[in-house]
Amino acid sequence: MAEQTQQTCPYCGASLPAEASFCPRCARSVNQRQKVSPPSIRWRKALRRAFPALLLILILGAAGTGWYLSTLPQVYDDGGTGEVTYTDEDGTYQILLGWRDTPYEPAPVITQTAEKDGEYTFPVCLFIHHKDTGVNAGEIFLQKVASVTAEFDTPDDPAAYISYGDPAYDDYVPDAALTSFTHFLGRENSARGTWTISMKNGDVIYLHQTLNVELLETVDIYPEDAPMDTIEDLQVLVDSLGDRVGESDVVNIHLPAVTYAGTLSITERPVNLYGSTEEEGRTVFTGTVQVNPKGISHIVYLYDIDFVGDGDGVGISTARRTWPIGCRFTGWRTAILCHGTGPAGGGICLSDCQFTENQIAVHYNSNGTGFFNSIWPNCAFLNNETGLLFEGESTEDALDLSGCRFEGNGTDIDNRNGQPLDISQAVFQ
Predict the structure, then answer these.
(1) Which of 70, 93, 165, 172 could tie 181 with a disulfide, CB 3.0–4.6 Å?
(2) What pTM, to 2 d.p., does this model score?
């Protein structure tokens, strides 16, 4: 077949070469355009019809994913507030770390003051309440709990310990779900603690608490530093301490080996008295020492002092926290009378003391909230008409008399208020 050498312009009919794409006569393009059909719209109709079903599938998928995620274990972190709100099928709970006297207020930061190298213990409490009513929910919530642990990070001063005791229920704070007795050494220090509550459903709750330890200044006053040979001199010294030392300072007065006749009143600020144990003899008081300083958190320590009565009167009368250590009491109508109310009431602890030939060795007649130390170790009650007399309001925590010896008393223990006692390690002869 012969090759075509001519073409005709489709617009004006002019004869053009076969390869021409433009007609010079009518000035128009002679290329033939290919008609393109638009795509079918049937798939669009199908998509519109299927869209509701696809949307339903997406919604159900999202709901299923949400339900699945809701069944996974959750982590609740207090973010440093000391408090978490936790919700399950039974309700919503307030869970917090706090002080025994403020069970609804979280304590994310605790500051304790301490003497250098002193050893200290205090309670940290886990409180659990129903969020809407504030009712104690500790018992019912703990049924959902697999374990609770408490641990401090390494303190700033690693040589000085800061540690939690194992969390457990303790009737020292009956409203707390759990209590940890926290221990630290008196050094300038800080550490962050974490309580981990692992739930049986796999949830984990983290509560955080920072303990800061600040050192107290200690002021020691010796016989060569100030007059203290008579009860009058000693009273002047005790009364002047408010102007001589800081409010938070610990003051230790080291007494000479003399006999003080008359009453000594410690009513302004706390002070510790150290009796003489040197060869020249011991320090003796023949009158009453009255202990009722301002404030409720301090302890008045009395070391190695002999309290000698004439068959009448009171050796120590205390309405605040007082701790005789290594002291001897003889010849009193009442060797120690403990009275007072509120947190400071019940403020007596004894260690290594001896009570001989008193009508009443210790009369505990307080309406306090509890003992600041519930162990009275290694005391001897010998030939008294009554060793221990308990009146007033009893405490829930038992008083531990480990190592105590009762011998020759008319009545060893007169427990009129039903005070709980642990006498399993005491000796009665």
Answers:
(1) 165
(2) 0.66
